[in-house]
Design brief:
353 residues, alpha+beta, TIM Barrel, Immunoglobulin-like, 18-stranded mixed β-sheet, two-stranded antiparallel sheet, 8 helices, 20 strands, 20% helix, binds zinc ion
């Protein structure tokens, strides 16, 4: 499998972002990304204006973000504009499915800040919905905003945006864990929600969620059967297949790159990648490789099961259920949240274990 690193939640000048797609692609290239997906609000103008393809050596794909006041939904791989329906997001989900796109519930839980858009939040309100493909568990901009709890803290964060990096949203993770434990094929996604807008604090111009910085913060890494070929159609198919099958992990690449992470299931003769669903058989074991020494936590049906330190981690004595891993980097006094994998399911096959 070949690893590619990308970013799937980005706004350009086609909505409320500050940059043109070609400028954004150049920043993504500088940050070492292989692909980006532009997700402007309410439109696919980038697609209709022929912006999909390779720009600055980066594969640029165009999706969109649907809905206005609440229930924001990322629609990837769609070719027709999906109409907003804040009041009935199931209609939006169904339309993305009709177009065989990938639909992701975006930044579902937000606290907001009274110092940022007067406390506006854009949370997901309707949890009666079904048939979406995943949930955004880590959205840098959303958490940056939530962290603006006082005027001083807001000013500090504007000038030290990396200090706004915290951890994935625990409510989003819990929601996903519950769905996955029921056997639902829903996956975790993440991004920085890069807008690259410039504002003035007094007379000082500052950038909010600048593209280059965002592309060094929360990224998604995918595994594909082949390296990128340089052909839009072939490479876009690989990206969407990996994203829709959960062959991916979310990494905060800022302190340490998540390149080279692997979470795999093995038995004596076979290996299954991240995102797989496997019938229980004997001698199953997980291997986890972290690109730097880390504390790795294995979760079973959303509960911490085991931890391991180092770069090569092995877990045995596995029972049926859904498993995922979280990796933490040792900082001076604490562990920093670093990598969040998609799951591997071991399915109960009717035999008692
Ligand atoms: Zn949004
Ligand atoms: Zn957005």
């Amino acid at each position: 499998m070949f690893e590619h690193k990308g970013h799937i939640h980005i706004h350009s000048r086609y909505s409320d972002g500050g940059g043109q797609v070609k400028q954004i692609a150049a920043q993504a290239a500088r940050a070492g990304l292989d692909f980006i997906i532009i997700t402007d609000h309410y439109n696919l103008d980038g697609l209709y204006k022929g912006e999909e393809g390779y720009q600055s050596g980066v594969l640029v794909l165009i999706g969109m973000e649907v809905n206005q006041e609440c229930n924001h939904y990322l629609a990837l791989g769609v070719k027709e504009v999906v109409a907003n329906n804040d009041g009935n997001p199931q209609v939006v989900i169904n339309e993305v499915n009709r177009q065989q796109g990938i639909g992701i519930i975006a930044h579902p839980f937000e606290k907001g800040s009274r110092y940022y858009q007067k406390g506006r939040t854009y949370e997901w309100r309707d949890w009666s919905v079904t048939d979406f493909q995943g949930i955004e568990i880590w959205n840098y901009l959303s958490q940056f905003r939530d962290a603006c709890t006082s005027i001083l803290k807001s000013i500090y964060l504007i000038f030290n945006p990396v200090a706004g990096l915290s951890r994935p949203c625990s409510q989003a993770l819990n929601t996903l864990d519950k769905l996955q434990a029921r056997g639902q094929k829903v996956f975790a996604y993440g991004g920085s929600d890069a807008h690259g807008v410039r504002i003035k604090v007094g007379r000082l111009p500052v950038s909010i969620s600048p593209y280059y910085l965002c592309f060094n913060l929360i990224n998604i890494h995918i595994l594909c059967p082949k390296p990128f070929s340089g052909d839009l159609q072939l490479d876009q198919k690989q990206v969407y297949e990996a994203l829709s099958q959960g062959r991916s992990w979310i990494a905060c690449d800022y302190y340490q790159s998540g390149d080279g992470f692997r979470f795999e299931l093995h038995n004596d003769s076979k290996t299954w990648p991240i995102g797989s669903s496997v019938d229980y058989i004997a001698n199953l074991k997980f291997s986890v490789k972290t690109p730097a020494p880390a504390r790795v936590v294995l979760l079973h049906n959303g509960r911490h099961l085991e931890t391991s330190q180092g770069t090569d981690h092995f877990f045995t004595n596995l029972r049926p259920g859904v498993y995922r891993v979280e990796a933490y980097l040792k900082d001076k006094f604490r562990y920093r949240p670093w990598i969040y994998s998609n799951p591997i399911w071991i399915k109960y096959n009717g035999i008692r274990h």
